[in-house]
TrEMBL record:
Topological relation to the membrane, as annotated: Multi-pass membrane protein
Protein name: DUF421 domain-containing protein
Database matches in Gene3D superfamilies: bsu07140 like domains
Annotated ranges, domain YetF C-terminal: 102-172
Location of this chain's protein in the cell: Cell membrane
Length: 231
């Protein structure tokens, strides 16, 4: 389109583009066909496609979005061509799933592996950095599961799908509060109800001695700042 053809008062072009108004009816019919074809494809892809998506499934969903837009909107592109590409995407997805069933290595490459974020109440700082997860995100996930003390946490895994899997102790002990990032001033070494227990304010490593006046390095992360543990 030449720039001379662009006029602010040209409502025919603004509303319908270069296509005649009757093309709107064709767009409706094209959308109807592609929509039901997409529903059928998702049905064959399985229940996982409507749940928390893995990396491979997210890639397929993005691909499907690109596939269905063209045959629905472009007058010079036939619907059958879009449906053919949709079937190819379906076969490719099913083939990837079958490959992962028979190959653990393929599953690791495509979906990734779970990562240990918390071990026995201690945050694994290097694992957070590797997975680009902040402590705020981790604490928010724990608070969302009713956990307000790292002393309750046995393990936290970040699954390949991005979900947090949280396992707790039957008898929780003292540990770092998951509210710490929200109000650090409330967790001064002079405050708290953890008795003689202190935790590293970076990773939550627990020690049973007074470290508030000592420059002691945390054996977990090397940090030297400590706060009172909470029960």
């Amino acid at each position: 389109m030449d720039k001379e053809d662009i006029k602010l008062g040209d409502w025919q072009r603004i509303l319908f583009g270069d296509a005649p108004a009757i093309f709107m009816v064709e767009v409706f019919l094209r959308t109807l066909v592609v929509y039901f074809a997409l529903l059928l494809a998702l049905r064959f892809m399985g229940k996982r496609m409507t749940g928390q998506l893995s990396v491979a499934e997210m890639a397929v969903m993005i691909t499907l979005g690109a596939i269905v837009s063209v045959p629905m909107q472009l007058a010079d592109r036939g619907v059958l061509l879009g449906l053919l590409v949709l079937v190819c995407a379906l076969l490719f997805h099913q083939g990837i799933n079958l490959w992962q069933v028979h190959s653990r290595r393929a599953e690791k490459i495509i979906e990734g592996e779970e990562s240990l974020l918390v071990k026995d109440g201690v945050i694994q700082i290097k694992s957070l950095e590797k997975n680009r997860i902040s402590r705020q995100q981790l604490f928010a996930a724990l608070r969302g599961n009713g956990i307000f003390n790292l002393g309750e946490v046995r393990r936290v895994y970040l699954e390949g799908s991005g979900l947090f899997s949280i396992y707790t102790f039957e008898k929780p002990g003292p540990g770092m509060s998951t509210l710490y990032e929200m109000d650090e001033s409330s967790f001064d070494p002079a405050n708290g109800d953890g008795g003689s227990f202190y935790v590293c304010d970076m990773c939550g490593f627990l020690v049973e001695r007074d470290v508030k006046s000592e420059c002691i390095k945390c054996t977990g992360c090397g940090n030297t700042r400590w706060i009172k543990a909470t029960n």
